[in-house]
Amino acid sequence: MRVIAGKYRGTALFSPKDRAVRPTTDRVKESMFNLISSDIDGAEVLDLFAGSGALGIEALSRGASGAVFADMAGESLKICVANLDKVGEKSECLRGDCADIVLKLGNRGKKFDLIFMDPPYKKGIAARAVAAVAETGILNKGGKIIIERAREDTPTEMPDGYRIVDSRAYGASVVEIAAECTACAVTGTFDPFTLGHEYLVERAAELFDVVHVVFLINPDKQPSMPLEKRMKLAKIALRKFPFEVRIDAYEGLAIDYCRQNKIKYIVRGLRNAADFEYESEMAKWNYDNGGVVTLFAVAKDADISSTEVRKRLSEQADVADLVDEDIAKLL
């Protein structure tokens, strides 16, 4: 096991002899650090299930300004200290339960930009550790939690306000990148996706880190276009924007989608007084039955609607002023 890159590149590290301790493979480690390459320089790092300390030392080698190492096992920490001595780093090493360590660090006012979690597989420990991080607020704004889990394990459960923003599989392992971020849902049938819908998503992105555009499937409603085509058109319209958009389809209620995805806000558009009356009733129902808050955005152009697009298409009229220019060409 060696340091892959940076000032300690090529340094051989001591490894635990206990087979129960599973060091991150070089391939997974290299892939993991590629995902966070722009976040390392000057970062404060917590290697929470440190083992040999390979992840924290790799971060220090690549330019992190400091690191704290923690592990339950005394023997593992001894190896971690030996590896730190080998590269000439003097870092704090703590022994104890992951949640207790996070609590202690939080009480001391410690903050971190990167938190590595490589706990024993198949034990659900990472979820408890992330919950402790959320409770104590030790992750700096814009910081990331890097989790390694077994491929057959379910995704790490996130507390409110935290989300898995990236997930990559490498052989038997999965690397998850989690972060504190807000999310909302923009729901509808989008038959088809219009410039009005684009504007609504843009307004939502001003308030939230992630916008879920959700195509709700109602068996009693027959859209004019197949679901696959409608979703494709939305992807075409939204690909030009720099913010994060997730396009989903869901058969069921909007509040159920929000509950499953831990989303507390829906953003809806208003074109006129009739819209407001209907949407207000729906907003009350969504809150009373699902605890989901509805935020309203006034339409930029009240004349833009999916209904108007369908009407013009039936008349073989131009729709270029109603939809994205690439969509207009396809329609």
UniProtKB/TrEMBL annotation:
Keywords: ATP-binding, Coenzyme A biosynthesis, Cytoplasm, Magnesium, Methyltransferase, Nucleotide-binding, Nucleotidyltransferase, Transferase. GO terms for biological process: coenzyme A biosynthetic process; rRNA methylation. Residues 186-312 form the Cytidyltransferase-like domain. It catalyses: (R)-4'-phosphopantetheine + ATP + H(+) = 3'-dephospho-CoA + diphosphate. Its main location: cytoplasm. Pathway: Cofactor biosynthesis; coenzyme A biosynthesis; CoA from (R)-pantothenate: step 4/5. ATP binds at residues 189-190, 197, 269-271, 279, 301-307. Its cofactor is Mg(2+). GO terms for molecular function: ATP binding; methyltransferase activity; nucleic acid binding; pantetheine-phosphate adenylyltransferase activity. The keyword RNA-binding does not apply. Transmembrane segments: none annotated. The record marks 197 as: Transition state stabilizer. One of its GO terms (cellular component) is cytoplasm. It comes from the Bacteria. It is found in: Cytoplasm. PROSITE patterns: N6_MTASE (PS00092). Its EC number is 2.7.7.3. Substrate binds at residues 189, 221, 254, 268. Belongs to the bacterial CoaD family. Reversibly transfers an adenylyl group from ATP to 4'-phosphopantetheine, yielding dephospho-CoA (dPCoA) and pyrophosphate. Homohexamer. HAMAP family: PPAT_bact. This is Phosphopantetheine adenylyltransferase. It comes from Candidatus Stercoripulliclostridium merdigallinarum. The lineage of its organism: Bacteria, Bacillati, Bacillota, Clostridia, Eubacteriales.
